[in-house]
Amino acid sequence: GSSEAVLVQPAPKARARLKLPLDTACIKGKFGARVTGSSISKVAFKLNGKLLKVDKAAPFKVLVSPRALRVGSNKLSAKVSFVGSANKEPVKLSGLVFRCKKPSFTG
Fold first, then answer.
1. Which residues lie below 8 Å from residue 62, measured CB to CB, with a gap of 6+?
2. Which of 14, 27, 59, 75 is most enclosed, with most CB atoms within 10 A?
3. DSSP code of 16?
4. What is the secondary structure of 29-96 as a DSSP string?
């Protein structure tokens, strides 16, 4: 008999997290959002349902212009697809960012 040990590598755990700026209460300038995790093949970023970017290579990130934000609440979402059979279904992640009203100058 053979005395060789067969090592079976466990499949990588597919996971993803959406990272938004710490201060999303009053976005004034450009901001970046990124998805981190493992076994990610691509990420589709959307703002209020409108496709911003599809990223197929790490780092999975998007830069959002304040002009793209409406005043008030905006939903930034990321549809994350995973490599191979690590995870069958794409995962949807989302977060809210807020744009304040433009300051009105008087005088």
1. 32, 33, 34, 45, 52, 53, 55
2. 14
3. E
4. S-EEEEEEEESEEEEEEEETTEEEEEE-SSSEEEEE-GGGSPSEEEEEEEEEEESTTS-SS-EEEEEE
Identity at 41, one-letter amino acid code: S
Backbone angles phi, psi at 74, to 5 degrees: -130, 140
pTM higher than 0.90? no
CA distance 29 to 60: 20
Contact 80, 90 (CB under 8 A): yes
- Burial-class residue 66 by CB neighbours within 10 Å (0-12, 13-18, 19+): middle
10-58 per-position pLDDT tens digit: 556 778 999 998 777 788 889 999 999 988 999 999 999 999 999 999 9
